[in-house]
Design goal:
globular, 5-stranded parallel beta sheet, 3-stranded parallel beta sheet, TIM Barrel
């Protein structure tokens, strides 16, 4: 499906004709039955499911308080595991409401699941919306278990964790098939067990999934950090199977909320959301620096790593700084400049950035390393007119850069067949 097939095309730009646009960052507002409908009978009351707050036990209410979640009203739905552990509110996870209207501000944090757009949760309305917006394919990330699967630390039973991982990955394979190969859900990994991680990498590759997510800071949850040899089997298998690792902003227990510790306490909820969202995105600067300077990219030169929902404008400066400091401080074990590692095997995506500075950033980073995203249906998403917002900047940039950043780079990173879209 190319952009000329949409009603909005002529209002966007003739220069995009024939380009199959791939959106590399969207999310699934998980339906309440995404796990229970696929679980065997013995697990249906144990895998993530939704209950009303009035039915929480006193112990579960204490968990909610520790999570920093505003005390739920009795009618508020909550995600619960094993009938004893709370994952968090079962909210819409979307600023696009049931009427497919975008609502600004933090009010969406109070919406229940059924207030969200159906396109946020279900394949058929999602694909229909993609057709309307001119999007050929989307990469899809989870909400409930965290952008890096970090929320699994709230589940004490490791076997149950594994069941939840497998069911999610099976659901992503189902979604990919049901969408006709246009929705590509990223696989979860059991990051707390390296042997099971390797086994699941092999399994999701056989399922035909196109990439994985993992905890960006496992060292904060009792595991080695990602540069330790402990993780080498994971990196090796991802490299060998040509599966990209995605580091979505907020993909660890220490970066798991919209607000985090960034805003000052006296600010209003809407202002806190604005500050928290911007700083959450900037958190991936640390991830890029550590992946390169730790030697992970040196040891695994064919590994593909994506910095998701973090923009690109800051990256030219960051890489210039890393080049300078790696030389100034004689960083160990590197045979290339940090910027050269980035251009060889790392990728980033933009959405609301525009104007000449965006083109300059892309050219400085490398036209092969940048991709387009919309962040549907989250607070900073480009809905309802993602192409009208993004495309004008590229009108005079040349056909090569347009095709690469809106389509070909994503097809390369995620091993997608453009001819089949």
């Amino acid at each position: 499906m190319t952009v000329e097939s949409t009603a909005l095309f002529d209002e966007v730009d003739e220069s995009m004709r024939g380009i199959k646009i791939i959106d590399v960052d969207t999310h699934l507002t998980e339906p309440a039955d995404i796990w229970t409908s696929r679980a065997p009978e013995r697990l249906r009351k144990r895998v993530p499911h939704v209950v009303l707050a009035k039915d929480l036990t006193d112990g579960m209410r204490e968990q909610v308080a520790k999570l920093g979640t505003t005390g739920p009203t009795d009618g508020a739905p909550m995600w619960v595991v094993d009938e004893t552990q709370v994952l968090g509110p079962a909210g819409a996870g979307s600023v696009i409401n049931r009427n497919n209207e975008k609502v600004k501000g933090s009010v969406f944090l109070q919406w229940p699941l059924d207030e969200s757009s159906l396109a946020a949760s279900y394949v058929e309305p999602r694909v229909a919306m993609m057709d309307q917006l001119g999007i050929s394919a989307q990469i899809v990330f989870p909400n409930v278990v965290g952008f890096g699967g970090q929320n699994f630390f709230r589940i004490s039973d490791h076997d149950l964790r594994m069941d939840i991982v497998r069911i999610w990955n099976d659901a992503m394979a189902d979604m990919q098939s049901e969408s006709g190969g246009r929705l590509f859900g990223m696989a979860l990994l059991p990051w707390w067990d390296i042997d099971k991680t390797v086994t699941e990498i092999k399994r999701v590759a056989e399922l035909g999934l196109k990439g994985i997510i993992t905890n960006a800071d496992p060292q904060n949850q009792g595991m080695p950090d990602l540069a330790e040899p402990f993780w080498d089997p994971m990196w090796q298998h991802l490299q060998d199977l040509n599966l990209p690792v995605n580091f979505h902003c907020g993909a660890s227990a220490t970066q798991r909320t919209y607000n985090g510790g960034s805003p000052w306490p006296s600010m209003t909820p809407n202002s806190k959301l604005a500050v928290g969202s911007a700083m959450l995105q900037m958190g991936n600067a640390r991830l890029v620096a550590n992946m390169i300077l730790s030697g992970v990219c040196e040891r695994f030169p064919r590994l593909k790593a994506v910095s998701v929902e973090s923009g690109i404008g800051w990256l030219p400066f960051m890489l210039e700084a890393l080049d300078y400091h790696a030389d100034e401080n004689a960083a160990d074990g590197l045979t290339l400049k940090p910027s050269e590692y980035f251009r060889r095997q790392m990728y980033a995506c933009f959405w609301f950035e525009n104007g000449p500075s965006l083109i300059d950033s892309i050219e400085r980073l490398g036209v092969d390393n940048c991709m387009f995203e919309t962040d549907f249906p989250h607070p900073t998403c480009l809905f309802p007119e993602p192409l009208r917002s993004a495309v004008p900047t590229f009108k005079d940039a040349g056909d090569t850069i347009r095709r690469k950043v809106f389509s070909e780079n994503a097809a390369h990173v995620y091993n997608l067949d453009l001819a089949a879209l």
